Amino acid sequence: MRQTSAMLGVAASVMLAACAVLIGTPTTPVASNPVATHASASHGSSARGLRHGIRICGTPELTAADVDLVERFTDAERRKLGKRAAAALSGPIPVAFHCVYFDDAFFSLGLLTQLEIQAQIDLLNSTFAGTGVSFVLASTSFTNNEDWFSHFPGSVDERNMKLALGADPNEFLNIYTTDLSQWGLLGYATFPWDLRRKPDLDGVVVGFDTLPGGSAVPYDEGDTAVHEVGHWCGLYHTFQGSCSKRNDNVSDTPAESAAFYGCTFVQPDTCPSAGLDPIFNFMDYTDDACMDEFTPGQAARMIKMLTTYRKGL
Ligand SMILES: [Zn+2]
Q: Which residue in 158, 221, 228, 256 is the catalytic one?
């Protein structure tokens, strides 16, 4: 939620390198970011879970060609559905929540409480209110596994974790909490159009420390999960496509040239097209305290994508 206290504006100077990921290929996180270069495989460090620099989302940025493909494929799927295409979801999306943590005789990290998990679900419902998308906690699991807890997106450990724990991705939103901080990431997600070809990897992974009241300041209000679930529902970043006419394929989120970091009251205007940069949008990289909006256009896109690709919800 946006705060009224004085906050520092930090204009993004770099557009994060987009991963060259085609539809259906494994998710690969950003590798060229300096925050990610201090990745360490060491275990037992008390610094784990505290190493977030700036918001980095591991969900792949698609190329313009990939976006073209997604949009054309989606239009074809909608035509196939015809009058059978639902206009709304049938009810709240059931969430299978998986807390993966690490605990041995000397060290413990990542074990959440049921209250903390419910607070995240409640936040999803309050932030998605008005979009036509809502959530209900269907199940919770707690798993002590060091390899899965510290997995790297795209790794064998990710696959093994999801194969072992994931509920049917056609019927559930699987949310996993792990320690992504050592990779410089806050979270990552799969897109709905990848469900059919990669059902085993479907879902959202967020750092355990990003839940409401977590330690990943300034990403400690639970908005990382909101952002990643936005991807899971079919939204791109607001800075997708930079200043291109199409940008994020949502007409009421003005184009912005690059991600915005930090928080400010003065909205920049980095593209020649109409409208100020949508830095308060959940799909930008702003601090949790500064992001508080999904637009009607994003809501419509989420419903369209969910009713096209996630019909079993
Ligand atoms: Zn993202």
A: 228
